Amino acid sequence: MAPQHALLRRFSTKVVLITGASRGIGRAAAVDFAREGACVVLVARGEADLESARQK
Question: Which residue, among 15, 14, 33, has the nearest Cα to 25 in the 3D structure?
Answer without folding.
Answer: 33
